[in-house]
Structure prediction request, 156 residues.
Amino acid sequence: MVATCVWRATPELIVALDDRFGEPVDAYVNGSQVWLRDDGPGEVTLEWRLHPVAGYRRPPKVGTYEVFSATSLALATGAEPPAPLDQLWDGLEVFVAYGDQAPAVEPAPLAAAAAAALGIAPDASGLVDHGPLGDEWERTGGKVSVIAGLLAQLQA
Prediction:
């Protein structure tokens, strides 16, 4: 079980990510956007992962590494994004980076540090088991919502 925090995707969340964190350190063909930042409790490194919607398809006129910046700029300026937000990302998850090699962090301090770093309190936080959720995502070829799965675990 891993401490995690989850935010549902909103225009305000995407703009806050860009304003506070800047460009992702990595972007994936599957739509994920990732930041690694030392803003956890005790300056532990956190992985901030913007999870794509189930069945994500990259908008045709932007590259994998431009989707986030083009979307965040459009949302911040009132322009039309490359695709509607609900066709891109379901939400954001944060957890301690580097798995078993990282120090253990409890959910409450993680939520406080994450809210301070992002400027927006998470919609949910607690302990989750990434294993079954990742297995289901792989089995279906990305046709399940990771955020819905995380929220279901956090609300159970």
Observations:
- The chain has five helices and six strands.
- The beta strands are 2-8, 26-27, 33-37, 46-52, 89-96, 124-128.
- The helical segments are 11-21, 67-77, 107-118, 130-139, 146-155.
- The chain has a mean pLDDT of 93.
